[in-house]
């Protein structure tokens, strides 16, 4: 059951692509006050394309909708476990400005094309079934001035039965996170809280044709194939950030 938080939205058409990495790789890129969270000894870097829909303060009849692409990792902080975002690319000038100002998150402007969502039919390529009803084509190109540019181009689709992550499982570690941390320009650490029902996930398949997010954020591209999950649409609420 969602609480009475300040901001509400819906997340849909989401792919969670995660690569296991050495914890030292992640630790070197974290601000002071955060440490690496691991599962069975591995840290993880995640690439998450999705659509944020109808983002608005409670009581406002209409909100913003735009695609987002983020690179994230998982951390332990002063307020407990959470997500740390290395970058967030969004195709909405106002949304980027608001997120940078109110949430102090590293949002960057991008040009993004999303086709073949669950609502409109398939658009698969490569190893993904082009006729799959839920296939999504997500192509993003960062155009924000003053930061390294980044590209991501993939087609993805669900490829199995729906499930809810079990407590303590790897999917729960990767997805059941209700807190995020961010650092201001002075290095001061902030924390934000979100709320939603447990994720409904499905195994996924993806054809990732371009992904330069790792290099743009100072990481070497991880070896091996990612762990893939397709996320069903979910209603989310969020609060303003506060000092951690």
What does this 3D model show about the protein?
The chain is mainly β and 244 residues long. It has a single domain, classed as Acetoacetate decarboxylase-like (Beta Barrel). The protein contains four helices and 15 strands. The protein has helices at residues 23-27, 93-103, 170-175, 213-216; strands at 7-12, 14-21, 35-36, 43-57, 64-77, 80-90, 107-115, 136-142, 151-158, 179-183, 189-195, 201-211, 227-231, 234-238, 242-243. The chain has a 15-stranded mixed β-sheet that branches.
Overall helicity: 10-25%
Shape: globular
Task: Report the major sheet.
Answer: 15 strands, mixed
Q: Detail the poorly predicted runs.
A: 118-126
Pfam families: DUF2071 (PF09844)
InterPro entries: ADC_dom_sf, DUF2071
Protein name: DUF2071 domain-containing protein
Q: Keywords for this structure?
A:
15 strands, DUF2071, 4 helices, DUF2071 domain-containing protein, Acetoacetate decarboxylase-like, globular, mainly beta, 244 residues, ADC_dom_sf
Write the layout of secondary structure elements.
Layout: E1 7-12, E2 14-21, H1 23-27, E3 35-36, E4 43-57, E5 64-77, E6 80-90, H2 93-103, E7 107-115, E8 136-142, E9 151-158, H3 170-175, E10 179-183, E11 189-195, E12 201-211, H4 213-216, E13 227-231, E14 234-238, E15 242-243
Parallel strand pairs: 6-7, 6-10
Antiparallel strand pairs: 1-4, 1-14, 2-4, 2-13, 3-5, 4-5, 5-6, 7-8, 8-9, 9-12, 10-11, 11-14, 11-15, 12-13
Pfam families: DUF2071 (PF09844)
Protein name: DUF2071 domain-containing protein
InterPro entries: ADC_dom_sf, DUF2071
């Amino acid at each position: 059951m969602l609480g009475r938080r300040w901001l509400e939205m819906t997340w849909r058409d989401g792919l969670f692509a995660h690569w296991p990495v050495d914890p030292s790789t992640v630790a070197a890129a974290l601000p002071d006050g955060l440490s690496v969270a691991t599962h069975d000894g591995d840290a993880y870097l995640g690439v998450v394309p999705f659509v944020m829909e109808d983002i608005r303060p409670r009581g406002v009849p209409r909100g913003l909708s735009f695609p987002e692409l983020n690179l994230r990792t998982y951390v332990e902080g002063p307020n407990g476990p959470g997500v740390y975002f290395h970058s967030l690319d969004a195709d909405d000038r106002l949304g980027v400005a608001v997120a940078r100002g109110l949430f102090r998150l590293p949002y960057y402007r991008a040009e993004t094309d999303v086709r073949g969502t669950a609502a409109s039919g398939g658009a698969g390529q490569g190893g993904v079934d082009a006729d799959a009803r839920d296939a999504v084509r997500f192509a993003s190109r960062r155009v924000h001035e003053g930061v390294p540019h980044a590209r991501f181009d993939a087609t993805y689709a669900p490829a199995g039965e729906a499930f809810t992550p079990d407590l303590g499982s790897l999917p729960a570690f990767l997805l059941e996170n209700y807190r995020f941390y961010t650092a201001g320009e002075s290095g001061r650490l902030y924390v934000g809280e979100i709320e939603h029902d447990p994720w409904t996930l499905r195994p996924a398949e993806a054809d990732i044709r371009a992904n330069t997010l790792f290099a743009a954020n100072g990481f070497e591209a991880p070896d091996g194939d990612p762990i893939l999950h397709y996320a069903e649409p979910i209603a989310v609420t969020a609060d303003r950030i506060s000092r951690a």
